[in-house]
C-alpha cells in the first residue's frame, strides 16, 4: 500500500510542476493558467490516492467477513443440532444448556458427537458423575460447618483459648438430659437436669478458658451437653456446662477422648485453676 502511494505521488509531481522538468535551473517561470492546471491535477492525484486506499480497505473487510460468515453459520448450525438432539431425547431447556457447556468441554471440536455416539454419551455420563461426587463432598463439608455454627449459636459457645495447659487432673462428668425449648419453668428444669444421673470419673488431657479435652467413658455424642467439675481437692474447678464438639475413639482399648467447648464458664475460678495447673506442671518439670 505504501509503495502504491509513493508511485502515485511520483507520477503526480510532474503534473504539479510541468515546467520544472523542462526548464533549466534559474530560468523557471510560471504562467497563471499553467499553475492553476497543475494545482487541479495535483488535487486529482491526491483524491485518487485516497479513493484507492478507501476502496482497498473496504474490499479487505468484505473479504474477511465473507471468510468468517461460513464459520459462524456452521457453529450456529452445530449448536442448533445439539439442542434438537437433546430435545428429542427428552431433556429440558435448562438441562440442555448445561449439557451443551459440558459437551463443549469434553469435545470442543465436535460437541454434537457427545450425544450422537455411545462413546460420547459415556464420557458425558462419567463427567456428570464426577461433578456430582465433587458437589456431594462440598455439601458435606458445608453441612459440617453449618452444624458447628448452629451449635455455637444455640449454646453460646466460647472460642477455645490458644494457650492450653496439659494435665491429667481427675474430673467428674455427667451428661445433661434433653430439654424441650417451650418449657414454662426453666429453673425447675435446671434443678432436675441431673436428678438420678450417675456421674462418671474421667481425666483432663488439656484445659483452657474456652474448652477442654477429657478422657472418659460416657454415653454421649456430638452436640450433646455435659457438665464437668474437678474431682481433685487441691485444684477446684466449679461445675461447667459444655457442648460436645466431637468424640475421638481411644486406641488400644483406651476410653474415648471428648473435645468440649465451654458454655458461659466461670472465668475467675477457671483462670485460677489454670494458673495452679501451670505452676504444678512447672514444678514437675523442674
Question: How would you characterize this protein structure?
Answer:
By secondary structure, the chain is an alpha+beta fold. It has 3 domains: 58 residues; 80 residues, no CATH class; 121 residues, Beta Barrel (Thrombin, subunit H). Helix content is 54%, strand content 15%. Helix 1 packs antiparallel against helix 2 and helix 3 packs across helix 5. It is elongated, with a radius of gyration of 44 Å.
Describe the structure concisely for a colleague:
By secondary structure, the chain is an alpha+beta fold. It has helices at residues 2-16, 32-88, 93-106, 112-116, 118-155, 186-192, 267-285, and strands spanning 165-166, 170-175, 200-207, 211-215, 225-230, 240-248, 257-262.
Provide key terms for this protein.
single chain; 286 residues; alpha+beta; Thrombin, subunit H; 3 domains; 6-stranded antiparallel β-barrel; elongated
